[in-house]
Hints:
Elements: E1 21-25, E2 29-32, E3 37-39, E4 57-65, E5 70-77, H1 78-84, E6 88-94, H2 107-120, E7 123-128, H3 139-155, H4 164-169, E8 170-180, H5 182-193, E9 200-206, H6 234-244, H7 260-264, E10 270-276, H8 282-294, E11 300-306, H9 321-335, H10 343-356, E12 373-378, E13 387-389, H11 400-406
Amino acid sequence: MSMSANKSSPARNDNRNEGDIAVDLFPFLRVYKDGRIKKFVRHATVPASDKKTPNGIVTKDVVVDHDTGVSVRVFLPVDAAEAAGKLLPLVVYIHGGAFCAGSASASVFHRYAESLAARAAAVVVSVDYRLAPEHPMPTGYDDAWAALRWATATSRRRHTTVDLWVANYADTTCVFLAGESAGANIVHNVALRAKDGIDIEGIILLQPCFWGTERLPFEKPDAWRRATAPMLLPERLDALWPYVTAGAAGNDDPRIDPPAEAIASLPCRRALVTVATEDVLRDRGRRYAARLRDGAWGGEVTLVESEGEDHCFHLSPKPNLNAVLLMDHVAEFIAKGKTTIPTGLMMKQRRRHRMFDGADTEKMTSRAAQTGLTVERSGAEVMENLILMPRNKAHNCPRSADVLKSSI
């Protein structure tokens, strides 16, 4: 889920009697007992353009599935591509919006994808997936999977609709899946589909939207550390997944509450998970990262915490040093590029995949991950076992002035 504080802000609350509400997903939408749906998030849109932006990006829209009409917006960092002399990382970006709002052309997500392409020097493919309730989940998963297959096949020149931007500039051996909130949930579930045939270097989950049937500590009202309620309320999150799946699934569904076994079967080598300390969803993100770290996955995981921020703060157009620092972490994660998976780890992952797919029903035995969990916080002091970003130190953000203009 995500929302922006500018042109993508929710419309003014209406005055209908609360007793008339059947499903309350404010600040995204409300469903009334008479069947009416009121959508509160109205995104201004930005057209694609082959005119280079000040930060060196050109964009275009491409239909990737003519049967469904699903399209992507491709962001090409022209200057970086010309200067690099080599193929650039490929990032498939999936926007948030509670599975029911947003688009690749929405200004808030266009702006972020453009900044990501410029800052990370990567070819970014932003997925314009179909939305609930008109297209219940798992339609969003299917559309994102189609986009991933298109992007990786296109740059290998094995697709019937070859896109020259992706084919000529993107490195399909250095693929990342990235998304915030509901988009991060889609990243996790699409990554699980990529066990065969698509090599994913890393996943980037920004304040991921996971939920469940039991409350974690920060989801309880007495845990909130401020006078005002958080942007996302637990009782509304309770209704989200049943609604966007058209009643086909509850909050015990492994797609919204991924079990340790599913997380351990992820086929990627690296993971970046970020949370905001004032976000109700933060404990879900922390638990996901901990399961990567402590379970049988065996890859490299990094957890970044943004101090004093709420859900999807990084999408706000207002200057925010924490948003700049978060973009720095994402760019550095991508810049690390390709890593080699050890042969032993590859064999263990294949065995776990078979087990998770039902080929082996024996109980999976967990073991400590080979690499530890790096926890980073922006706007905090150094503490034991944590790598924390000092508050407002200029030397930790050498490009602050420039990045504030172009990255958020």
